[in-house]
Design goal:
Layout lengths: L12 E8 L6 H14 L3 E9 L11 H13 L4 E4 L5 H11 L3 E3 H12 L3 H15 L25 H38 L4 E6 L5 H9 L17 E7 L2 E7 L9 H6 L1 H8 L3 E7 L5 H15 L6 E6 L23 H8 L4 E2 L8 H17 L4
Parallel strand pairs: 1-2, 1-3, 3-4, 5-7, 5-8, 8-9, 9-10
Antiparallel strand pairs: 6-7
Helix pairs in contact: 1-4, 4-5, 5-6
The structure holds guanosine-5'-triphosphate (GTP) and magnesium ion (MG).
């Protein structure tokens, strides 16, 4: 997968396109995120345009004039591909590719490809492969992908006739079936591990949250583990579990999980269910937020909604505001606009917005003791409550 964008000397150039209905906020953050996703994949951003769309016309998801303008712009910028922050239907995608004469990558595909690059274990690889195939199957007829050459091959190679297509469709369906069976085996092993942990009677805390919030960093800080930490999206794709003592003598397990992102592709949620379920089976969730993230509300809501989708909404949660070192030095933008009002510090403002949360900085080590205390109290409480 990786080679798709790296076989040539220069990085592939992407022209990013976002849509806005004109009313919602948060477009800027979504735009920054799209850029980060593209860059995580090794693409160079040639340009980024946000289009105001009132009328979602079926052919391109917008008017033909607007679409033609964007295709022209992409050519001017010498972009190698277009990256959309929205999910065109398979036929819209084909129309766009015909119009622009370049591959069109939507947000789902971007995320799936990042997952594919980062999958490090057999389970993650199987899960990503499954998500990829489920994504490509309905798109086969127009974006012809030669499966045997996908690794290292050219992007979106078209060619072959109907027969070839049918054969490939069947091949993919068989592959999906085989992968599902193989995954089932791996899942069984995971279940055995879980049962063993249950027999040990150890309470389990799971660290959850938006991608890049600092979950793995927190696991490392609390347990002395050395799980990979990176300033990239989706550094972690596997649930790593370590022994953890929130207070001397109180032994528990702490699990790091895959990060969430808004509009996480469904095929990925489905494929990663067993990894994500680590969160569902925990006695306590530690929800890590990046306090320096301007769109923190959206990150907060996204995580809660994925947790709901997984059926984990009843598990006690401790919310953590991480990376406070990055905001402590700056005056709050919302508080203290006038001279008369007492300016709350940015951290205080966030604590008001997320009451009961623990502000900390993994980087500086501040707030970690407070978090350990809160975890110990919560685990003691859940021990006292009746076993479900
Ligand atoms: N300034 C600052 N940076 C931090 C802090 N905690 C983590 N980081 C940085 O944030 C980036 C992401 O950290 P990770 O621990 O990999 O984040 P994650 O939530 O595990 O990310 P994914 O696995 O990608 O979902 C890294 O560059 C860390 O060094 C902190 O307290 N302060
Ligand atoms: Mg991580």
């Amino acid at each position: 997968m990786r080679k798709l964008y790296e076989t040539e000397e220069r990085a592939k150039r992407a022209f990013l396109v976002s849509l806005t209905a004109g009313k919602t906020g948060g477009e800027q953050a979504a735009g920054v995120e799209l850029r980060r996703l593209a860059e995580t994949l090794g693409l160079a951003v040639a340009g980024h345009e946000t289009i105001r769309v009132r009328d979602r016309q079926p052919k391109f998801g917008m008017g033909s004039g607007k679409a033609a303008g964007l295709a022209e712009k992409a050519a001017e910028l010498e972009a190698d591909c277009l990256v959309f922050d929205w999910d065109p239907s398979p036929s819209q995608q084909r129309n766009w590719e015909d119009l622009a004469g370049k591959p069109v990558v939507d947000r789902q595909e971007l995320i799936i490809r990042i997952f594919a690059e980062r999958a490090g274990t057999r389970e993650a690889e199987l899960q990503v492969r499954l998500a990829e195939l489920s994504y490509f199957l309905p798109r086969l007829s127009h974006k012809y992908i030669d499966l045997s050459r996908q690794r290292g091959g050219r992007y979106g190679t078209r060619g072959g006739g109907e027969t070839r297509l049918e054969t490939d469709r069947r091949k993919i369906e068989q592959n999906i079936h085989r992968l599902e069976k193989e995954l089932e085996e791996v899942r069984k092993q995971r279940q055995v591990r879980r049962r063993r942990r249950k027999r040990q009677g150890l309470p389990v805390c799971a660290i959850v949250g938006y991608t890049n919030a600092g979950k793995s960093s927190l696991l490392n800080a609390l347990t002395g583990a050395d799980v990979l930490v990176e300033d990239k999206l989706f550094a972690t794709l596997d649930a790593a579990t370590r022994r953890f003592e929130p207070e001397p003598g109180m032994v528990s397990l702490l699990t790091d999980t895959v990060g969430f992102i808004r509009r996480l592709p469904h095929s990925l949620i489905r494929a990663f269910r067993s990894t994500l379920e680590e969160a569902v089976l925990a006695d306590l969730l530690i929800h890590v937020l990046d306090a320096s993230e301007p769109d923190i509300e959206n990150c907060f809501e996204t995580t809660l909604s994925v947790l709901r989708e997984l059926g984990a909404e009843d598990i006690p949660i401790i919310t953590v505001l991480n990376k406070t070192d990055r905001i402590a030095a700056f005056p709050s933008e919302t508080a203290g606009q006038t001279a008369e009002t007492e300016a709350a510090s940015p951290v205080e403002a966030l604590l008001q917005r997320f009451p009961e949360s623990v502000a900390l900085s993994v980087k500086n080590g501040t707030g970690l003791d407070e978090l350990k205390k809160r975890i110990a109290v919560s685990l003691r409480k859940s021990r006292l409550s009746p076993v479900q």
